[in-house]
């Protein structure tokens, strides 16, 4: 059984969902510390800081990539305790940018009201909002059925996975904050991953290349009888708006689900 995990991100990019859908169990690390930027290993061995995407997403407009950012009050708290700054009119600005960017897309009229439903709520913390956007992305890669976002939960998605013809490995998702495991301590990420795998009954851990370079200890996993598997997936091309600026890979899931039918979405994410 394969387990993967990730911090919740804001309408995540496609590689995030590829990792979710091609794991038997997916864990959302909603109680780890919020950071706006990560240090990413470079081919020459140096580190370069870039967006963590925990409070950012990237869509496309007629000028190219457009980053949408959620303003927050605190940056030294866990994701599920970080407060969103609702004194700024960011949600309406995001909705307007999405509307302008995708109003001519195939699925805009059907899906934009769902995004409005998500963003028109005020959430207690960043984790609640970003988890909602992750759930929405999973659902819209699984089905075209009409849903109410107020009904969505890990249990709802589990039922959906059993109910529909599911072309992916995914069978279950869970929030780390709802597990009996405490958050990882500094320098103990691999021990925490091993504990997560044991909790989920997994003997395989599926992770990204950045994690591989930054902190993964494969020998330690193997001593615990857990196989480490690096995600090796490249975002494929598909129908997009504004092709005068060229095709942009690995955008927010919003871009794919707005532009393609369900069968194509699923084919591209395998």
Question: TL;DR of this structure?
Answer:
The protein is α/β, with parallel strands linked by helices and 270 residues long. It contains 10 helices and 9 strands.
Major β-sheet profile:
5 strands, parallel
Oligomer kind: single chain
Protein structure class: alpha/beta
Distinct helical segment count = 10
Radius of gyration: 18 Å
Q: Roughly how many Å apart are the termini?
A: 17 Å
Approximate shape: globular
Topology:
Elements lengths: L1 E5 L7 H8 L3 E4 L8 E5 L5 E5 L4 E6 L2 E6 L20 H13 L5 H12 L6 H17 L11 H10 L8 E4 L13 H12 L3 E4 L1 H6 L3 H6 L3 E4 L22 H7 L2 H8 L1
Parallel strand pairs: 1-2, 1-8, 2-7, 8-9
Antiparallel strand pairs: 3-4, 5-6
Helix pairs in contact: 2-3, 3-4, 4-5
Task: Please characterize this protein's 3D structure.
This protein is of the alpha/beta class. It has one domain. The chain has ten helices and nine strands. It has helices at 14-21, 90-102, 108-119, 126-142, 154-163, 189-200, 209-214, 218-223, 253-259, 262-269; strands spanning 2-6, 25-28, 37-41, 47-51, 56-61, 64-69, 172-175, 204-207, 227-230. It has a five-stranded parallel beta sheet, sandwiched between helices. A two-stranded antiparallel ribbon has the order 3-4. β3 (37-41) and β4 form a beta hairpin. α2 (90-102) runs antiparallel to α3. The longest helix has 17 residues, at 126-142. It is globular and about 55 Å long.
């Amino acid at each position: 059984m394969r387990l993967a995990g990730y911090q919740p991100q804001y309408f995540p990019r496609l590689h995030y969902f590829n990792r979710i859908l091609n794991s038997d169990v997916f864990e959302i690390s909603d109680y780890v510390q919020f950071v706006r930027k990560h240090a990413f290993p470079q081919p020459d061995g140096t580190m370069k800081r870039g967006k963590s995407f925990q409070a950012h997403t990237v869509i496309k407009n007629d000028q190219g990539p457009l980053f949408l950012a959620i303003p927050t009050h605190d940056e030294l708290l866990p994701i599920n305790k970080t407060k969103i700054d609702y004194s700024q009119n960011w949600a309406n600005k995001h909705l307007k940018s999405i509307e302008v960017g995708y109003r001519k897309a195939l699925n805009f009229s059907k899906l934009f009201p769902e995004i409005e439903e998500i963003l028109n709520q005020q959430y207690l913390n960043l984790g609640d909002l970003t988890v909602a956007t992750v759930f929405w992305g999973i659902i819209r890669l699984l089905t075209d059925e009409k849903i109410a976002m107020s009904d969505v939960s890990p249990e709802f998605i589990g039922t959906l996975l059993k109910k529909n013809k599911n072309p992916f490995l995914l069978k279950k998702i869970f929030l780390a904050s709802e597990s009996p495991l405490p958050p990882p301590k500094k320098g103990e990420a691999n021990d925490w991953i091993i504990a997560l795998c044991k909790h989920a009954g997994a003997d395989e851990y599926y992770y990204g290349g950045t994690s591989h370079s930054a902190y993964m200890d494969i020998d330690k996993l193997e001593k615990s009888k857990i196989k480490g598997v690096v995600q090796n997936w490249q975002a494929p091309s598909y129908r997009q708006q504004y092709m005068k600026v060229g095709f942009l890979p690995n955008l927010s899931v919003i871009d794919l689900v707005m532009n393609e039918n369900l069968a194509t979405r699923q084919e591209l994410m395998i």
